[in-house]
Write a structure and sequence with these properties.
This protein is mostly helical. The chain has one domain: Rhomboid-like fold. The chain is built from eight helices and no strands. The chain is globular, with a radius of gyration of 19 Å. The two termini are 33 Å apart.
């Protein structure tokens, strides 16, 4: 029990730090009456490359920030809880791969916000859950999908004000990483009935 509690607390640390960071950036931006929008990814522009590093930290308004905060926190928590050994690697690979892909295929506009990370984490957890047969991971991802407001529809260009390209590139990064790290992560879940059958078969053989 103590070990599980320690593991859960460990899983909270980085997602909470990221949440404090993006809120701190917004508070600083508002307090100084600045606009950090031009710090976002601007595709196929040399100056826009810096957005790969900064865009997930920048949000257009408070609603944008609030909408992204809980999903990125809970998906980050799930990542660090279930994939403790490779969580930092997955997080930062999603961060940079999605940003680089966005720079390559996005519209000529500034793309900001952490939704690319959200889509990347959701895609990684869901696909990895399928590959590794861990139903709890798939359940967590699906819960966030519905909670976040139709995550799948965000992959399509319905609203020109929303960067569906960031959503798409995040999802692509998450899927690719789930396949690449298919041998890493939590062990497959088995039903209690299956475990009893296996134990019974072992008794018969003995």
């Amino acid at each position: 029990m103590a070990e599980e509690r320690k593991r859960f607390i460990y899983s909270l640390v980085f997602p909470a730090f990221f949440l404090v960071l993006i809120w701190g950036v917004k508070f600083f931006e508002m307090a100084m009456e600045l606009s950090f929008v031009e710090g976002g990814v601007y595709p196929r522009s040399a100056g826009g490359l810096r957005g790969i590093l900064f865009s997930p930290l920048i949000h257009g308004d408070w609603k944008h920030l609030v909408d992204n905060s809980l999903p990125v926190f809970f998906l980050g928590l799930a990542l660090f809880y279930f994939y403790r050994d490779i969580a930092y690697r997955i997080w930062f690979l999603i961060y940079f791969i999605s940003g680089l892909l966005l720079w390559g295929i996005g519209r000529q506009a500034y793309h900001i916000g952490s939704s690319g990370i959200i889509y990347g984490l959701a895609a990684f957890l869901f696909v990895s859950g399928i590959i590794r047969k861990v139903r709890s991971l798939m359940a967590i991802s699906l819960l966030v999908v519905f909670w976040y407001g139709g995550l799948v529809w965000g992959l399509l260009p319905f609203d020109y004000k929303v960067s569906f390209e960031a959503h798409l590139t995040g999802a692509i990064a998450g899927i690719l990483l789930a396949i690449y790290f298919r041998d890493r992560g939590p062990l497959p879940e088995t039903d209690a009935l299956e475990e009893e059958d296996e134990e019974g078969a072992g008794d018969e053989e003995n």
